[in-house]
Every structure is written in C-alpha cells, then in structure tokens.
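INSTRUCTION: Work out how this chain folds

Token vocabulary: learned, describes local backbone geometry

RECORD BEGINS BELOW THIS LINE
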Amino acid sequence: MTDVPAGRRLYGDLAVWWPLISPVEEYAEEAAFAATVLTSGSVRVRDVLELGSGGGNNAAYLKAQFVLTLVDISEDMLTVSRRLNPECAHHRADMRTVRLGRTFDAVFVHDAVDYMTTEADLRRAVEAAFVHCRPGGVAVFVPDNIAETFVPSSHLGGSDGADGEGVRFLGWEWDPDPADTWTVTEYAFLLRDTDGSVRVVHETHRLGVFSRDVWLRLLTDAGFEADAVVEETTEDRSPRELFVGHRPEA
C-alpha cells in the first residue's frame, strides 16, 4: 500500500521497475558530491536522515560513509530500497509532517523535494528538516530546477535486466505558466516483461520550481544559516544548485 497521490504510478505499482528506470550506477558521482556538502557542518557527521529517499540509490553510496535513516512516503519505493539497503533504517512518512523524535548530524533531501509545488509545502519540508537537524548540523536540498535556470527539455532513459525485462522512457519537461510555482513533466514508459510483451504507461507529474531567493528565505525563516552551492558534475547536463542550511550551535 502506498500513500503517493493518484497519477504517480511511478512510485506505486511501477516501483518494481525503478532499478531499470533509474539504475543505481547512475548515482555514484552525485552521491559523492552530496557527501562533501553533508560534511560541511561544524560537527562530525555520522547519523544522516534522508527525506524522500525513494528507491535508495543515493543511500547505496552514502551508507559507506554514514549511518542512514531513510524516509519516504511510498511503501512500494521503500520495499525497493530495503532490498538494496537492508542495513539502513526505513520509515514511511511524508517529508512535510514526519517527526521521528530525534535529531541527526545532517539531513539530506534529494530531488523528491521537487514534489513540493507550493511555497507552503516547501516551507513545511524545510521546517521538518530543521526539527531533525542537531545544532551545528547541516541540511542539504537538491532540487532539479530553480526558477532562474529552468529550461523546457526532454530526456531519454531506461535499461535492461538480466532476465529479459527492460524499460525505456521519455521525460518531457515544460512550464504551462511561468508565473506560478510548478512545472509539468510528461512521462511515457515502455515496459518489456520477461515474456517479451511490451506495454506503455503515460502519466503527468507536477513539480515545484522556486526562485533562489525563496529557497534562501525559507531556510532562513526555519532557523538555518542559508547558502547555495553549485554542483560539480561531469555529466552532460547543467549543474544543479544545492541549498544548504547550517543550524547554529547556539
């Protein structure tokens, strides 16, 4: 059973295809860069909370350096992650409302934060990160896009499994109204089963896009000392802008 909104089958009944849709090998470089930012706080970082951890692909690399607690809204995605990261603690919860009753040296929020489509929802996610971040710790947010740099685009992906299963997909990003705080990504998935049969699934995802000033203001309002860091990447794409909140020690 999953609590993800209707229309996001990618994180529901299609979650079993996640390892082929988004192979873990594709995360090595970005996880390594995220680790450098996660250790930028004034305390030694050992315990890390990841909000919106999905299928656990970042955790597959970060767990070599940190003790991870993984939170996601989708039980189906957590099932995928548990297979990949059995040594990590997993909790099903919404990143806006989760309260685990403890703090961590660092909080990591990857691109699942894109599903915050209003400033009110983004504020709640930032506040949840602050609540779970110990004094001297750091929170790192990695949105795919910000308003200043969003460009309509399309991308292809997918891979094949050893048993004959395979996935190919198209993602088409565009912005129906640049005056609001969300964009649209249309996904078309071709899913090949082990018997060679192929089916097609289409769905629409609404994703938040906020200005740099909004990000920094919300982090500051929550109590963080806020900064922005440009990602270092060798991939054939524009580097993302990470937003970093340092929680003061006193």
